[in-house]
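re: ur msg from earlier - yeah i can do the manganese (II) ion complex, just paste it... oh wait u already did. ok heres what im feeding in:
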Amino acid sequence: MKLHEYQAKRVFAEAGIPTPDAELAETVDAAVDAAEAIGYPVAIKAQVQVGGRGKAGGIKLVDDADEAREAADEILGMDLKGYHVDRVLVEEAVDFTNELYVGVTMDRGEGKPVAMVSTRGGVNIEEVAAEDPDAIAREHVDPAFGMHPYQARKAVYDAGVDRTVANDVASVLTTLYDLWAAKDGADAEINPLMITADDEVVAADAVMNIDGDALFRQPDLAEMQEEAAEDDLEAKANDYGFDYVRLDGNVGIIGNGAGLVMTTLDLVDHYGGQPANFLDIGGGAKAERVTNALDMVFSDENVDAVVFNIFGGITRGDEVAQGINEALEAFDEIPKRVVVRLAGTNAEEGMEILNTDLVTVEKTLEDAVQRAVEYAEEDSQ
Ligand code: GDP
Ligand code: MN
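and the outut:
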């Protein structure tokens, strides 16, 4: 579960991490009022859950009410990497001299949490990690003890952070780790952590992902999830009871079983396509579940073609085929081409039943994925 920037900032601020004065706005008028109240210059920031908003035009710095109005008008309602912007965070602009990165995540390789610091903040940290891994200082933490203050200081010094702010940055890192641990975090990140001209540290951005399976013991965050599920697709997935993750590509993927869906994602990538989502419809693929799954991928504007990958175990192939037929027959016009691969129990029977006027049937997973990647390329708008 991913919090919005404004929510993560609220959580960080409550824990004592300095954040800019900010107000959330849903209308242009409210954004201008907020800017006037905060005082210029302010940053107006699209509240959608993607990175790189700045480059995509979703963040604007403004110096007066006219500019604020213009920026809010432009950003509210814009389509940012496939996400509709319906809220902006209006925030006191930070006058900064440096941008750092600090983050905490689970290092699965080591089986331990890891705290990270880099002086290469303000840019995509995955790119930094790929180009120049040494530019990120890492400190593994024993969860039984938590992060010791000396570990935070070590990470900060290893990263080469300026001595004048080192203690403050170390304290932000310790707080971030404590929050991550207390809130069942998956990742927590501040990028950039800005250093101001007066040597203050300020969290100019905030990312907090929570382990969805732990939400039952995080009632405050669960409430934020309701508020955050502004992405229609994610809200839909919650309603339908699907495991769903939205991605950037244009090949919609539906399968049963997380491993099978992951394999399909990897193969789409292998054949030069880009997955639009992870969607696991789970066991049992009666018509209703299939209809719901198709509704999900069809309503994703980024999807240009769909691959359906079902392995029949308890779920029988003929039942799934029936479900796919029924679901697709309900459309006057099927919005995107669908490729189906069935395997396992009653797969042969299923493939015979499938209405080939509605779907393309492929025998192997490789063929099905390749076909869907082709369709997506041909039909991409
Ligand atoms: P992201 O690109 O979606 O991660 O959005 P960020 O909140 O990280 O902002 C991206 C970039 O916008 C930052 O690295 C800054 O360069 C710039 N920016 C964001 N907020 C401010 C601000 O308050 N003042 C100034 N001067 N720049 C800002
Ligand atoms: Mn950022």
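cool cool. The chain has a mean pLDDT of 93. ping me if u need the other ligands too
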